[in-house]
Design brief:
Length: 700
């Protein structure tokens, strides 16, 4: 059949002949009615924001041949083509082109038909008599997006199965009579088998061959019959080699709609080390109690809620109560409210800071006058390093505490501490001001010219930048450098936050960039080496800072621009001659991660061809992550539209006008994050004679 482009030579143009940036899609129409095919092409030609190239096929077989010969974005399929089978056509076409979205078209306005078409694999169903240009355009766009989401879902399911096979915990399904229906690799590893299949084939009687304790399986089944769920069911089991380990099982009963038990499913964790640690802890506790009971000091322990969990005999005598009466009580059960509140405030300080705390506290034993005691409190940790409470020890220092000399010294020390704190605060403010001044000097003070002998107005490249930090110091940074008389390099990065840490990381990146001149001509190698160096520094810092970056090398002789992206917002390419704006896409493959997060990342370079008067606009995400008073976000889409409206402007007024628009959008005339814009204006291509003068070594 005939290949049809309903828009002809005017595709992508407005009525005045001005070229407009529209998306063009290749559409395959499988339709036996030639009149309807022409009508559909006319509808697509009237679409407002969609340019299409339509290929028509009269039957299903011809459609398959067209799919094999072309790369289409979407298929419009008439369910009644002569050689088809109605709704089964969708399944046949989906089997032939599983990665292509399908829109079914039919004469019947029937919801059942529409639902069955979608179940068969179509992304949408359209009634011929109800088609309009706008409806058809929306359907095509939605179908493509739904198909993309379906593809992502399938990828997520594959990822789920990958995770399932690599979990640390064992996962199982077993029958009530003791057979395994399913097991993952972790369970096989815990039980000592080489694979899940070996486990399922070998372990056919759980009650007799798995549990060490006789009757343990029956106990398990009894609990499941009563509760349908069980957690923390701990048992000793035999591994394949006969060794014994401890496991903890979490399980639930799976039943059908009638309530009949189908199988058990759950998880298994190897807790052998934990059980051994618990045994060691019990032995340690016994030794501990034998020691503290003989000491003359008052010793106690509390949990995270401030409840007493232990007290030695001396402590019990001080309170005048037995230990069993003290356990579970708090300071409020034995002391005045204001004193008890102070004790618990000190307790929280110890457990929060995880550091020992020594102080002098008031203590009022029942029936006695207030005494002063020296108190030392230390946090108590669990085996995995979590704070479980605190331990305290105190003894009477009433006479010393009441001495006036000690009171005067305490006041003097407090006054001195306040004075020193004030002085440190002033010094910190001065240091931050100096850091801001130093950070501004790190930015380019003047731009190179290309060739170096050219005046700024005659340079192959011209540059513009705007830098707006939101705090005293910021995390945005950029450089502009000359790699040769014809090659310019621009680097921009954004370190998360606008704190001193962000500024320090920015300074480190600046130093690292200066050391990368040997690979400066290759954007991929440049970011790969920078990521490796930054990762080596930050991995010892505890929590890494998100650092995005973009590196661009432009050649004034060829007009070629090569670039690599490390999780940074895509720069915008303003093609002034065409009046279009487009993001610099990653033509080398999928997007790359930010810097310093992962070791061994190899960044790939992409490239594009520049024309004279093209402008590349690089920026950080603070430019568009702005929220209006009504919570509306200034998105990347709004940014692209704003630049499109100003595509003919020079870089400097474009930047200023765009910044002013975004500030008005926020309602506060301010940005919430650091903002950095850098413009590379490609003025012209260097002619051959001029190039030989600028680079005599290359001509030789």
């Amino acid at each position: 059949m005939l290949t049809t482009d309903p828009l002809g030579e005017d595709s992508g143009c407005d009525k005045k002949g001005i070229e407009m940036p529209v998306e063009q899609l290749k559409v395959l129409l499988i339709e036996h009615d030639a009149n309807f095919a022409r009508y559909l092409a006319e509808l697509l030609g009237q679409a407002r924001d969609l340019s299409t190239q339509v290929r028509s096929a009269a039957d299903l077989q011809e459609g398959f041949l067209a799919l094999a010969a072309g790369d289409y974005a979407v298929v419009l399929l008439d369910l009644c083509v002569p050689d088809g089978a109605g709704l089964a056509n969708v399944s046949l076409l989906r089997a032939e082109a599983p990665r292509l979205p399908i829109i079914a078209v039919g004469d019947m306005d029937d919801e059942v038909v529409a639902v069955e078409a979608v179940h068969a694999g179509a992304q949408d169903y359209l009634v011929k008599s109800q088609l309009t240009p706008g409806w058809l355009e929306r359907s095509i766009r939605y179908a493509i997006e739904r198909h993309r989401l379906d593809t992502s879902l399938r990828a997520a399911e594959e990822k789920y199965h990958s995770v399932f096979d690599h979990l640390v915990e064992g996962i199982f399904q077993t029958t009530p009579d003791g057979h395994y229906l399913m097991a993952n690799a972790a369970l096989a590893r815990i039980y000592g088998y080489g694979s899940p299949e070996e486990l399922i084939q070998s372990l056919t009687d759980i009650e007799q061959r798995l549990y060490v304790q006789p009757g343990r399986r029956q106990e398990f089944i009894g609990l499941m019959q009563n509760n349908d769920i069980i957690t923390g069911f701990e048992s000793q089991i035999f591994r394949k080699d006969g060794s014994v380990i401890w496991i903890s099982e979490n399980c639930r009963a799976v039943r059908d709609q009638a309530g009949q038990l189908l199988y058990y499913e759950g998880t298994v964790e190897d807790i052998t080390q934990r059980r051994q640690a618990e045994e060691d802890l019990r032995n340690s506790e016994a030794l501990y109690h034998s020691l503290v009971e003989t000491l003359p000091q008052n010793i106690f322990r509390k949990d995270l809620q401030g409840r007493f969990t232990f007290g030695n005999q001396h402590f019990c005598r001080t309170l005048g109560h037995k230990l069993e009466d003290i356990i579970g009580k708090t300071d409020f059960d034995y002391f005045p409210p204001e004193l008890a509140a102070k004790y618990q405030q000190d307790d929280q300080r110890v457990m929060t800071s995880r550091e020992p705390f020594a102080t002098i506290e008031e203590h009022r034993p029942p029936g006695r006058d207030t005494i002063y005691v020296q108190v030392v409190k230390t946090p108590v940790f669990t085996g995995d390093g979590q704070v479980a409470g605190l331990q305290g020890i105190f003894w009477d220092i009433t006479q010393q505490r009441r001495a006036e000399e000690q009171i005067r010294k305490a006041h003097a020390q407090l006054a001195q501490s306040q004075k020193e704190l004030h002085a440190r605060n002033l010094q910190m403010e001065d240091d931050l001001k100096m850091a801001r001044e130093i950070q501004f000097t790190m930015l380019p003070q003047q731009y190179p010219t290309f060739p170096c002998s050219a005046s700024p107005s005659e340079s192959l490249f011209q540059f513009t930048h705007r830098y707006l930090p939101t705090g005293t110091v910021g995390g945005d940074f950029f450089t502009v450098s000359a790699l040769s008389d014809t090659e310019a390099a621009v680097f921009i990065c954004d370190v998360a936050g606008h704190s001193v840490r962000s500024a320090l990381v920015t300074a480190m990146i600046r130093a690292l960039v200066e050391e990368l001149s040997p690979v400066a001509g290759d954007p991929g190698q440049f970011l790969t080496k920078l990521n490796s160096d930054l990762y080596a520094i930050l991995r010892h810092a505890g929590t890494p800072l998100l650092t995005t970056a973009f590196y661009l090398v432009a050649d004034g002789q060829t007009g070629r621009a090569r670039y690599a992206n490390a999780g940074h917002p895509k720069p915008l390419l303003l093609r002034r001659a065409a009046g279009s704006v487009e993001p610099l896409s990653d033509t080398a493959g999928k997007s790359q991660p930010a810097l310093g997060l992962f070791e061994g990342v190899r960044f790939r370079a992409s490239q594009t061809q520049l024309a004279p008067n093209d402008l590349i606009m690089l920026f950080t995400d603070g430019l568009y992550e702005v929220q209006a008073a009504n919570n509306e976000l200034y998105s990347e889409t709004l940014l692209l539209e704003g630049v499109q409206r100003r595509v003919a402007m020079a870089a400097a007024p474009l930047f200023d006008d765009l910044i002013e628009e975004i500030q008005r959008f926020s309602g506060e005339n301010a940005f919430s994050d650091d903002v950095c814009l850098v413009g590379l204006d490609f003025k012209k291509v260097l002619d051959a004679a001029r190039n030989e003068e600028a680079n005599p070594s290359k001509s030789e």
